[in-house]
Amino acid sequence: GAGVSQSPSNKVTEKGKDVELRCDPISGHTALYWYRQSLGQGLEFLIYFQGNSAPDKSGLPSDRFSAERTGGSVSTLTIQRTQQEDSAVYLCASSSDFAGGTDTQYFGPGTRLTVL
Amino acid sequence: GNSVTQMEGPVTLSEEAFLTINCTYTATGYPSLFWYVQYPGEGLQLLLKATKADDKGSNKGFEATYRKETTSFHLEKGSVQVSDSAVYFCALRGNSGGSNYKLTFGKGTLLTVNP
Q1: Which of A50, A62, B72, B88 has the highest CB neighbour count under 10 A?
Q2: Cα A64 from Cα A86, distance rounded (Å)
Q3: What is the pLDDT of residues B33-72, one digit of tens each?
Q4: Closest to B107 in 3D by CA, of A47, A37, A48
């Protein structure tokens, strides 16, 4: 079966523009996660979805960041008014979550965001 | 809070050399421990994991043992290959505090294996 897919693979934008990053989890996986990988901060947790709800948004760095998930499947991470410090690789992961969030997380290839 | 510290790279080895990448952690309770690998141009892949003390995870010739007494999960391989060149991440997932789904990662170690 297909793994986690993300689009676009690369995104270059100008400071102040909005961007949307998309994640398609593995079919049947109820849990979905967003992480950010940057040179200065390493890999950081952003948000966790269980179905369509997000019980943990604690990692979102500012109110310019938001995410939604529809139909228990595709998720979109939106960054408004992008800043240069938002440049990073945004990783999505999913898991089956049968064990209450403790199943193995499978990662997508990431979206590399560059803010000029 | 939870944290993971792994040895900083880059690590450069010759083919067939022995590899150790150190990883120590801070966490309450009994976390699960993981090693993920990121090959050039690819996404993160789970390499191995251990969910309780003294468990040994193994895969593709790599091994790591969950040592609670030293809060460590060092990655080892007896004979590395050029194809093992990648970035290796140590990670933990806590089992308390209601956030047992969140992975906390180390900063990654770049391994380069020369023929």
Answers
A1: B88
A2: 10
A3: 999 999 988 889 999 999 989 999 999 999 999 999 999 9
A4: A37
Question: pLDDT tens for residues A18-63?
Answer: 999 999 999 989 899 999 999 877 899 999 998 888 878 889 999 9
- Which residues of B are less than 8 Å from A107 in CB distance? 36, 43-45
Q: How does DSSP classify residue A106?
A: E
Q: Could you tell me what percentage of chain B is helix, strand and coil, using 3-state DSSP and rounding each to the nearest 5?
A: 5, 50, 45
Side-chain half-sphere exposure of B80, counting CA atoms within 13 A: 23
Please name the member of B42, B43, B103 whose beta carbon is closest to the beta carbon of A45: B103
The DSSP 8-state label assigned to residue B101 in this structure reads T
Backbone angles phi, psi at B82, to 5 degrees: -55, -35
Provide the token pair at B98: 């209601």
Beta-carbon separation of B106 and A42 below 8 A: yes
Query: Which A residues 48-87 touch B at CB under 8 Å?
Result: 48, 56, 59
Q: Which residue has the tokens 């990692």?
A: A59
